[in-house]
Amino acid sequence: MARKITREKTKVGRPSVFSTSIGNEICARIMEGESLRSICQDDHMPGQRTVFEWLDNDAHENFRSRYAHARTRATEVFEDEIIDVARSATPEDANARRLQVDALKWVMSKRAPKVYGDKVTQELSGPDGGPIEVKGGGVSGLLNAALQEDGSNSG
């Protein structure tokens, strides 16, 4: 009688089913300033496409909010990194360090624009930089003119 040999099948490939532990690790590593691309290069991590699918899936709303929070918090890590990069610059590598700092500042301004973005203001001025003249009495003048045309203004 021949014996049948059975082997347990081992999973091959990257995880594609969401798990809280993998989601927690991704968020923790993002918060430490690591890119999603580098995280997903690890063999035990899902591919970027899978993570994006998890983020788009309403069933993983908790992961989506933790991921967004982690990306925002990573800007604080980048702030510290900018200081370290600037302090360690030498005359020989100053241009490369400047490029690193500029790239980090750009990412920070996009992830947390209220904190790290450029402040944009608009100022309106009249001719030669002077005040804006309102002719015709402003809004009340326009309202009065409209009422007079209409015949509703008796006085």
Q: How would you describe this structure to a colleague?
A:
Helix 4 packs antiparallel against helix 5. The protein is mainly α. Helices cover 57% and strands 0% of the residues.
Summary keywords:
155 residues; single chain; mainly alpha; flat
In short:
This protein is an all-alpha fold and about 160 residues long. The chain has helices at about 20-30, 35-40, 50-55, 60-85, 95-110, 115, 140-150. The chain is flat.
Shape: flat
The proportion of residues forming helix, as a percent range, comes to 55-70%
What radius of gyration results from the CA coordinates?
Answer: 30 Å
Unreliable segments (pLDDT under 50, ≥5 consecutive)?
Answer: none
Main β-sheet, in a few words? none
The number of E-state strands comes to 0
| Intertermini distance | 116 Å
Order of helices and strands: HHHHHHH
- Structural class determined from secondary elements: mainly alpha
Q: How would you state the average pLDDT, rounded?
A: 86
Number of H/I helices = 7
Amount of beta strand: under 5%
Summarize the topology.
Blueprint: H1 20-31, H2 36-40, H3 48-56, H4 61-87, H5 94-111, H6 113-116, H7 138-150
Helix pairs in contact: 1-4, 4-5
